[in-house]
Amino acid sequence: MANKITDMSKIRKVIKFHCNGKSKLFISSYLSLSRNTVKKYISLFEVLGLSFEVINEKTDAELELLFSHTTVESISPKLQILYDFFPKMERELKKVGVTIQHMWEQYIAVNPDGYKSSQFSHHYKIWGKRVNPVMHMNHKAGDKMYVDYAGKTLSIIDKDTGEIKDIQFFVAILGASQYTYAEASMSQQKGDFVTSVENAMRFFEGTPAAIVPDNLKSAVIKSSRFEPTINETLADLAEHYETTILPARAYKPRDKSLVEGAVKILYRRIYVNLKETKFFSLEELNQQIWDLLDTHNSRKLTGRPYSRIELFLEDEQQKLRPLPQERFEIKYQSFATVMQNGHVQLSQDKNYYSVPYQYVKKKAKLLYTKSTVEIYYKYNRIAVHARNYKPYVYTTTPEHLASTHQFVAQWSAARFIDWASSIDESVGEYIMQIIESRNHPEQAYKSCLGILNFEKKVGKQRLINACKRALDFKIYNFKTIQNILENNLDHIDFEQEQEQELPSHGNIRGKYYYN
């Protein structure tokens, strides 16, 4: 029967024998095929520019698409010239505004006896199916970056426990050049996903017009045919990089065919080379992935005389928008009521940040990153602070506080010690002992202020004597100074009383005991 399709296994053998240097006569005799059939498949193999390794990786269905349209015309010089033009044409079509009609006009100007417009388009479709059997979409340079996770996980081994941890395999690919990025991450959670997407753009050294994720929960909170709800953190990333998020439509495999095809290729070129190797850290695993990825991006594309990285550098890199200088920081949020002292608590760190005093007792929203804390009230930002990770610390902007509170905002351990030392060394020593006795200096500030204010009430000398007596007791708090002054113990002659028992006054019993 004319044009009957030869069994795919025989086509593989024809190409294998040809690549191993066997003659057409030998192949014809060994496989029981006519010499013309052998010549036909070898000629088409050479026209397509494929290697035997590529042919061997393809399924029978893919091979049938490559070879099913073979005719005598397939190897004619006229068609050969046309096929030689198509790789250049495919690259030009990725540029904005370039159409098949424009490319035909270029072709016919150089080849006046070439194919007319309709046949030109027809053969381009056939060529496209042969060199790329999957459904074809015409991607414009710099337009879209597709992202997804591979279905199969990798693993690392915990050095301390020996536990094997599953690791996710993230893939990103640019539509026009098929330039690919991949990395391992601990999870598909929001934080890891957003970090991987950002790493991909940093790898590509530019921002695409749109990012196309699959409908995973880290990207899309609620799927919708018309208006899906984008995860807020991913939307913030898009705003930071001045791009947009276009989730792939549910049940529309063509929308994500490019990245799924990339995942399949990386299974063969990266995953297979990793699964038998033991890795003990994420960094070690990623380094191996990136080494294999360089090899993948440098390989020639099927049926084309160029690689992904060549196509990226020549055609797509300049179409990407410049990256912002600062990396994106993930924002987290919490809510708190403004306290009477004009501060809100960031419960994550157990510390406090000031807001303008007009918002006392109002409920505020805190958005915080690794470096900053922003405070909002009814969608208006009312304060911003550098994040402080030390617990139980007040971060205060003096202008935020009412006039009665601004003096408090200036409290510090050094200020109280200097103030006390200006009165007398013994007062400075006692104040320093109070501060050092607390877990946090701020806990001692009110006691210090109360003690130093005694100078106005009882005079400088009585305060000095009280501090000397309290240092003798080795008990450091405001109440001790207050009791000494109230019971006039600061008037006792220290030298004469060294060996005498002190009378009981209030909570003071004995010479060196204060309860």
Kindly describe this structure.
α1 (8-19) packs across α3. The protein has 515 residues and is of the alpha+beta class. 43% of the residues lie in helices and 14% in strands. The protein is elongated, with a radius of gyration of 39 Å. The longest helix has 18 residues, at 257-274. β6 (220-222) and β7 (229-230) form a beta hairpin.
Keywords for this structure?
alpha+beta, elongated, 515 residues, 20 helices, disordered C terminus, four-stranded antiparallel sheet, six-stranded mixed sheet
Low-confidence stretches: 69-74, 494-515
Please, how many helices? 20
Overall shape: it is elongated
Radius of gyration, Cα only, in angstroms? 39 Å
Task: Please describe the biggest sheet, giving its number of strands, its sense, and whether it closes into a barrel.
Answer: 6 strands, mixed
End-to-end gap? 113 Å
Overall SS class:
alpha+beta
Q: What is the helix content?
A: 40-55%
Q: How many β-strand runs? A: 15
Averaged pLDDT, please? 78
Beta percentage is 5-15%
Topology at a glance:
Blueprint: H1 8-19, H2 24-31, H3 35-48, H4 52-57, H5 60-67, H6 77-92, H7 100-110, H8 117-131, E1 144-149, E2 154-157, E3 164-174, E4 180-185, H9 190-204, E5 210-213, E6 220-222, E7 229-230, H10 232-240, E8 244-245, H11 257-274, H12 282-298, H13 308-316, E9 332-337, E10 343-346, E11 351-354, E12 363-368, E13 372-377, E14 380-386, E15 394-395, H14 403-409, H15 413-423, H16 425-436, H17 445-452, H18 454-458, H19 460-473, H20 478-486
Parallel strand pairs: 1-5, 5-8, 11-15
Antiparallel strand pairs: 1-3, 2-3, 3-4, 6-7, 9-12, 10-11, 12-13, 13-14
Helix pairs in contact: 1-2, 1-3, 2-3, 11-12, 15-16, 15-17, 16-19, 19-20
